[in-house]
Amino acid sequence: MAGKRRVALVTGGTGGIGRETCRQLAAAGLRVVAADLPGDDARQQDFALAMQGHDVSFVAMDVTDPAGCERAIAAISASHGPVDVLVNGAGITRDAVLRKMSRDQWDQVLSVNLDSVFTLCKLLAEGMCERGYGRIVNISSVNGQTGQFGQTNYAAAKAGMHGFTMALAREVARKGVTVNSVSPGYIRTAMTAAIPEDVKQQVLAMVPTGRIGEAADVARAVVFLCHEDAGYLTGVNLPVNGGLFISF
After folding, report:
1. Domain boundaries in the chain?
2. pLDDT tens readout for residues 39-83
3. How far apart are CA 52 and CA 78, in angstroms?
4. Lowest CB count within 10 Å: 30, 57, 59, 247, which one?
């Protein structure tokens, strides 16, 4: 990427899509900070090994804790410089049909998947506007576009994420900041590994490309939207779903 070396923050950065996004952003010339939950030493060690040779560091961050997020961002700014690129990738599922879904299952998913987008953008967007440059990419989902049985919480959060994206894109466009979404379909991650095999085969039969997606497919789309030359793309939702859902 042209110009000065910029700092990127990726939440959910040690997960399957997150770590590949970190790797590709670093390969594109950014200084990358992966944010994820503290306490899982084995996962952090595995992540560190995977990131060897790339300028990627780790910061412990609970995206449901606004004060903790603020402290982590202050530490990042002090050690690396201001964050110019934000990828909101933290996400969880707590699936259940609505009649069996608990309030806690609803609240957990909305807190991690949607409220965190508000928290991180609130903390970082103003500084991006003041500096006249920023790239924000929110990782949504095809299920936010189509809905999915047993995922009223997840589908609502992911659809809300893109509504947030479009609104914020309008607010910050004149300040050199773009805000976009990427909506993955079924991607080979730990989350999709938990789907029963017969359900996965049913889904695969509906994917025109005939394969499940890879984390690298999503990461390439994120890097594209984070590029300095992508300044005329904002408010976009970029599907990465193998043709599972096609629309205007």
Report:
1. 7-234
2. 777 777 888 888 999 999 999 999 999 999 999 999 999 999 999
3. 23
4. 247
208 pairs with which residues across the strands?
A: none
| CA–CA gap between residue 111 and residue 99 (Å, rounded) | 20
Structure tokens at 240: 């990465």
pLDDT at 44: 79
- The catalytically annotated residue of 133, 154, 186, 232 is 154
In the CATH scheme, what is the homologous superfamily, with its name and number, of domain 7-234?
A: NAD(P)-binding Rossmann-like Domain (3.40.50.720)
**Measuring CA to CA, which residue among 180, 174, 165 is closest to residue 221?**
180
Block residue for tokens 């944010």: 35
- What's the pTM value of the predicted model, to 2 decimals? 0.95
Q: Tokens 């707590």 belong to which residue?
A: 94
Q: Is 194 exposed, middle or buried (0-12, 13-18, 19+ CB in 10 A)?
A: exposed
Tokens read off for 58: 């780790």
What is the mean predicted confidence (pLDDT) over 84-106? 97
Percent of the chain residues topping a pLDDT of 90: 85
Whether 232 is catalytic is no
